[in-house]
TrEMBL record:
Protein's UniProt name: Homing endonuclease LAGLIDADG domain-containing protein
One of the GO biological process terms: photosystem I assembly
Pfam families on file: LAGLIDADG_2
Molecular function GO terms recorded: endonuclease activity
Stored PANTHER family: PENTATRICOPEPTIDE REPEAT-CONTAINING PROTEIN OTP51, CHLOROPLASTIC
Organism domain of life: Bacteria
Domain Homing endonuclease LAGLIDADG as annotated: residue spans: 25-186
């Protein structure tokens, strides 16, 4: 159901009926860890999820829009400046709860209780489709986590180990830290097996286009 987004009584009534399904929660976690962001409302008591990806990944944008179909009332908009598609959910107190966890003074962070939140393979898959990649000369995988600093990366490392049995390491370069998932102990293969059922066809190149060292 797509309608022009207004402050009408209709929208107010729709918001009262909204709830986040488990799938929507899982995708939200993966998206916030990746390229997505949360925007606070003018009231300061609600927030909306913003999703933006390159136009070349338009199938991925529409896949996410379909997941949030009851939360989105306009089509993704094209931004010529960065050749991207963008959409936002309506503002809602339920999403504001995630903003309180993932943002401090407007800056995205990793919550100390991330292990209680990142528990789903679907969340892992969305996170990887957003910000993950592999190497041309190895079957190892990586997650771009530069924005989260050393503390955030250590929290994510612990979460991946405790919740998914993945032995990841931190790699530092000129941009900061990112998570590296090695092949040596089978973690890269386990990670791929976990997320493969959820990776959409358009994004499968991230886990399939590899060659031996």
């Amino acid at each position: 159901m797509l309608k022009q987004l207004t402050n009408s009584n209709w929208l107010k009534e729709v918001k009262k009926s909204l709830n986040l399904s488990q799938v929507q929660r899982d995708v939200l976690i993966g998206t916030v860890l990746g390229d997505g962001c949360l925007k606070i409302s003018r009231s300061g008591k609600a927030a909306q999820l913003q999703i933006c990806h390159s136009y070349s990944a338009k199938e991925y944008v529409y896949w996410k829009q379909e997941i949030y179909a009851n939360w989105v009332f306009c089509e993704p908009r094209y931004h010529a400046i960065n050749n991207s598609l963008i959409f936002r959910t309506v503002s809602h107190p339920l999403i504001f709860e995630y903003m309180k966890a993932f943002y401090v003074n407007g800056v995205k962070i990793i919550p100390k209780n991330i292990s209680d939140m990142l528990t789903s393979a679907l969340s892992l898959a969305v996170w990887f489709m957003d910000d993950g990649n592999g190497y041309l000369n190895s079957y190892a995988l990586r997650l771009s986590t530069y924005a989260f600093g050393l503390e955030g990366n250590l929290l994510l490392k612990s979460c991946l180990s405790n919740n998914f049995g993945l032995k990841v390491s931190l790699r530092k370069d000129s941009k900061g830290y990112q998570l590296y998932i090695p092949t040596s102990d089978g973690s890269a293969l386990r990670f791929k097996d976990l997320i493969a059922p959820y990776v959409i066809p358009r994004m499968k190149y991230k886990i399939e286009r590899r060659r031996h060292p």
